[in-house]
Amino acid sequence: MTATQRRTIELVEHQPTQLAPRELDWALAEKLWRDYGAQVTVEFPSPKTDGRWRLTAQGWAGYIPLSEEVGISLLPKVRPGDLFRMLEYAYGLKGFRLLDDSYEADSLQGFYDRLAEILARRILIRERAGLYREYLGRRGPLPYVRGRLDAPKMARRPWSPEPWCRYRESTADIEDNRILAWTTFLVGRSGALRDRTARLVRRAHHALHAAVTVWPIGPEACEQRAYNRLNADYEPLHALCRFFLEHTGPATAAGDREMLPFLVDTARLYEKFVSGWLAEHLPEGLRATPQEKVHIGGSLRFDIDLVLYDADKGLPLCVLDTKYKDPSAPEAGDVEQVVAYAEARGCREAVLVYPFGPEEGLEASVGRIRARTLTFPPGADIERSGPRFIEELLVQLAPGFSRAPGHRLSGGESDHTQAQ
Questions:
Q1: Taking a C-beta distance cutoff of 8 angstroms, is the pair 272, 90 a contact?
Q2: 208/32 Cα distance (integer angstroms)
Q3: pLDDT of 404 strictly over 50
Q4: CA separation for the pair 116, 100 (Å, rounded)
Q5: Across the strands, what pairs with 223?
Q6: What distance in Å separates the CA atoms of residue 76 and residue 398, rounded to the nearest whole number?
Q7: pLDDT reading at 132 higher than 80
Q8: What is the DSSP letter of 413?
Q9: Is 97 helix (H, G, I), strand (E, B) or coil?
Q10: Helices (H), 218-362
Q11: Do residues 181 and 139 make contact, with C-beta atoms less than 8 angstroms apart?
């Protein structure tokens, strides 16, 4: 049964939803509580809940196929188009033109289906043209001499008439293709695809499986890969695979037939979106390093969302901590956190970045650190709000900076640089 045939319970992020006892089977509710407690808070019928189920989505978006009959759709508090825009920048998917006239999905579930269809079609096109192959070293007995004879091995096996050889063999069973094979295997088991898309994904998987080993691969394998003129078209395919591998269920054994969910941590996605936007639009002379680790003693460390650097001098200008929240004012704990990050990184600027502007912003000094808040909404007018965000971010760090991407900074230096 596909997602369109399954009864779907919709949960909006951080908004409790109550269901009558008959609307949710006890065993399914227990499964939801045990397996997806981090994504959905489950309160069982009791006097506290007035004898009803109470389900609350916790900062995640996506789809959970609980059974053949029931699925849970987790809806973000941002509009679907804004979420898709974050995904485009976070995973480098802008080249697929997902939000142009060819795009029809109005939900994350439809977006997932659309991406699965694009991946499967592009894999089939590449398979028809020929999968990328590499020459790998082999050694072993052959019925004829190929490559170089392995004389030491043959000397240890004088009874064997077959020559042992060292040779190179062209094969498609390489990691470039294994990433595609494992991704289509996982996506094909998702309970969120339409029948037509599910068939297409299975077709692509079978085409790969004929020449490629299906083996579990993590999303990190899709990053920082080397491409050449023969496999350049694999780069966008691996970008899609990274999205699916990060958000489509666990990497379970091949024999497990359980339907897999897809789940997006919206807070982490917003962080990747801000990082992706800055990487593409910062003026020349600046760079933003995501997820920078700073060890503070023993086994303790800080994982800083973003650190903005003077690229030429290698000096940290400020730290940025993204907060996927809609607060009336910054929380004291968040300010303490970003100030500690700035102190640990050795810079004097600390910025909290929100998708929705707090009613009461912040610009204050905490010791030698200046902490402030900025808003960067991932809305349809991002081509205006993005440059405005960069301008507000840099106006006091480098007052004379050029707004145009690809231009160097000009004018004054940062407070940090002057302090040196």
A1: yes
A2: 34
A3: no
A4: 17
A5: none
A6: 36
A7: yes
A8: P
A9: coil
A10: 234-247, 266-281, 332-345
A11: no
**CA 28/CA 47 separation, integer angstroms:** 21
Would you state the pLDDT for residue 48? 93
CATH number for the domain formed by residue range(s) 282-419: 3.40.1350
Lowest-confidence segment of 115-129, 174-188, 244-258 by average pLDDT? 244-258
- Per DSSP, helices labelled H in 54-134 are 80-90, 108-129
**Each residue's pLDDT tens digit, 349-359:** 999 999 887 77
pLDDT averaged over the chain?
84
Location of each CATH 3.40.1350 domain in the chain:
282-419
pLDDT tens, position by position, 379-396: 768 888 889 999 999 887
User: Distance between CA 259 and CA 31 in Å, rounded?
Assistant: 13
CA distances from 336 to 254, 309, 330, 358 (A): 46, 22, 10, 17
pLDDT of residue 290: 93
pTM (two decimals): 0.76
In which element (H, E) is residue 60 found?
strand 60-65
Give the integer Cα–Cα distance in Å for 337 and 370: 13
Count CA atoms closer than 13 A to 276's CA, side-chain side: 17
CB 306 within 8 A of CB 294: no
* CB of 321 closer than 8 Å to CB of 312: no
Q: Which of 334, 364, 345, 344 is nearest to 267 (CA)?
A: 334
Q: Provide the token pair at 1.
A: 């049964």
Mean per-residue pLDDT, 239-244: 92
- With residue 197 as reference, give the H or E element that holds it: helix 195-209
Q: Greater confidence, 1 or 140? A: 140
Place of tokens 């004898």: 51
Q: pLDDT of 323-381, one tens digit each?
A: 988 878 889 999 999 999 999 999 999 999 998 877 788 889 999 999 999 999 887 68
Q: Residues with Cβ < 8 Å from 61, sequence gap 6 or more? A: 13, 74, 75, 76, 83, 108, 263, 264, 266
Task: Decide: 13 and 61 in contact? Cβ < 8 Å.
Answer: yes
Q: Identify the three-state secondary structure at position 140.
A: strand
- Cα 209 to the center of its chain, rounded Å: 25
Residue type, 184: T
Confidence (pLDDT) at 97: 54
Q: What are phi and psi of 389, to 5 degrees?
A: -65, -45
